[in-house]
Amino acid sequence: MVCVYKHNSRAYFTVGPFYFFIMNELLKLAVQKSGRLYEGSVRLLKECGIEINNGNNQLRVRAAEFPLEVFFLRDDDIPEYVQDAVADIGFVGENVVKEKNKQVDIIAQLGFGKCRLSLAAPKNGVINKLDDLQHKKIATSYPYVLNDYLQKNNISAEIHEISGSVEIAPRIGLADAICDLVSSGSTLFTNELKEIETLFESQAVLISNKDLSSDKKEILQKLLFRINAVKKAKNNKYVLLNAPNDKLEIICSLIPGMKSPTILPLADKNWSSVHSVINENDFWNVIETLKMNGAQGILIVPIEKMVV
Ligand code: ATP
Ligand code: ZN
Predict the structure, then answer these.
(1) Are 154 and 161 in contact (CB under 8 A)?
(2) In angstroms, how far apart are the furthest CA atoms of the chain?
(3) How close is the Cα of 74 to the center of ligand 2, in Å?
(4) Each residue's pLDDT tens digit, 32-74
(5) For FRET with 106, which of 27, 127, 183, 221 sits at 20 to 30 Å CA-CA?
(6) Residue bearing the CA closest to ligand 1, atom 14
(7) Does ligand 1 come within 6 angstroms of the Cβ of 74?
């Protein structure tokens, strides 16, 4: 049975033991229309249980079963739209947020779109370190961030702003060096450039307008809860192993898990099965130490969502 009722001027409905808010407001999310962040943005929403069907290449799409409306925009415009409340929140590269310098809050790192903003110069040239850039010409699409960085490092250089294909600037005589985004380094390699300095590491972030209504803040908290569960799951693996009972204490101390490991008896009375969660960062070290301490039959399983 479905019941609808009101409390504190908010509408609710219940289905069996579950209750749901009826949100009048929709949270407006801006994502990149096409490009390197599009896939990651739509995938993250999907992993959060939010389906976006943008089959017809529309500008705005209402999400199914979540009070969210997604706007598809150029990534460079997202910080300004979020500042001006055209969108409430956005998924965009931290590099763009820094360069545009708009009044928005960075709420979370999203774990995709990873790259770094770096200075690079011709491989066999005279520029090998930051100081060599003194009085040189640097081509970039990041004039604001670069200028700030050069000033802080007492380098006086001429910044030449270009909007794309920055990597060809030294070859066509437009600049002595470049400041551009790098991920694998293959573009630099192809253009016979070497990286000489990293300004900062970047990834996609969730930005928010500074004056969200309380209803919109509530929707944002629900979205963040899901994003954090997805991120946590990606950083952790489920581990199952067999341990001799006399080694249980040391083995459990190596994989403490969320609260403590689960220990189940095996048919062989001298052995137990241990289940726990293990962090991706120290994964191989821990596995090796587990083996050294007598663990056998170690299984590692991906986790889909993780709520702590
Ligand atoms: P738009 O048409 O939306 O303006 P764009 O050409 O400016 O797109 P993309 O090249 O699609 O942008 O890059 C979008 C974002 O992807 C970058 O701002 C950055 O945050 C991230 N990114 C990750 N790796 C790289 C990389 N190797 N080169 C450029 N951007 C990268
Ligand atoms: Zn762009």
Answers:
(1) no
(2) 76
(3) 6
(4) 999 999 999 999 999 999 998 877 788 999 998 899 999 999 9
(5) 183
(6) 36
(7) yes
